[in-house]
């Protein structure tokens, strides 16, 4: 393993996590039943949110981490709005033990991206004519554990 410039990592060097870039890869907002969906509603909408994290190595020390957030608000069986956001970042990670690398990429990197993705979603929903949707904080540790358990189950019981 090298530290990015071709030399081995220095013994005892502190771990490093740097954000090199952040960007919107994909953003879709739909308001299919407007202007009817913008009228006052008798009941609050049912909102369903799904969050996924993906990672792609770019080099030995750089990784693209993407946070995919999909949501839909429905009322009386009609879609009020739906959205999909893929927000990503490029991270440089150095001097991290191999056994700690995967959790760092899948927990800490999306944790750094989430506030920016949350703001994009709130603004998109507001610009669609609705009150801003302020997503609750996400437990990325819990999400990571669920995904690891799901992968372990899939290996035990092949489909």
Notes on the structure:
It is a single chain. The chain is an alpha+beta fold. It has one domain (16-134): Roll (Bacterial Protein-export protein SecB), CATH 3.10.420. It is built from 2 helices and 4 strands; from the N terminus they run ββββαα. It is elongated and about 65 Å long.
| CATH fourth-tier homologous superfamily | SecB-like
CATH class descriptor name: Alpha Beta
- The CATH topology label is Bacterial Protein-export protein SecB
Order of H and E elements? EEEEHH
Task: Enumerate how many helices there are, as a single number.
Answer: 2
> If classified by CATH, what would the architecture be?
Roll
Question: How would you describe the oligomerization state of the chains in this entry?
Answer: single chain
Number of strands: 4
Task: Give a brief rundown of this model.
The chain has 159 residues and is an alpha+beta fold. The chain is built from two helices and four strands, in the order ββββαα. It has a four-stranded antiparallel sheet with strand order 1-4-3-2.
Write the layout of secondary structure elements.
Layout: E1 16-30, E2 46-57, E3 62-75, E4 78-94, H1 98-127, H2 140-156
Antiparallel strand pairs: 1-4, 2-3, 3-4
Helix pairs in contact: 1-2
């Amino acid at each position: 393993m090298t530290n990015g410039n071709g030399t081995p990592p220095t013994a005892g060097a502190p771990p490093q996590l740097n954000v090199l870039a952040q960007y919107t890869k994909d953003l879709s907002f739909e308001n299919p039943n407007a202007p009817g969906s913008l009228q006052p509603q008798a009941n609050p909408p049912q909102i369903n949110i799904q969050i996924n994290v993906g990672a792609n190595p770019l080099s030995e020390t750089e990784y693209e981490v993407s946070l995919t957030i999909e949501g839909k608000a429905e009322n009386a069986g009609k879609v009020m709005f739906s959205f999909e956001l893929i927000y990503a970042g490029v991270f440089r990670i150095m001097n991290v033990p191999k056994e700690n690398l995967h959790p760092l990429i899948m927990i800490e990197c999306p944790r750094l991206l989430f506030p920016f993705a949350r703001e994009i979603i709130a603004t998109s929903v507001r610009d669609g004519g609705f009150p801003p949707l302020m997503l609750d904080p996400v437990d990325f540790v819990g999400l990571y554990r669920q995904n690891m358990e799901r992968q372990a189950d899939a290996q035990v019981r092949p489909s």
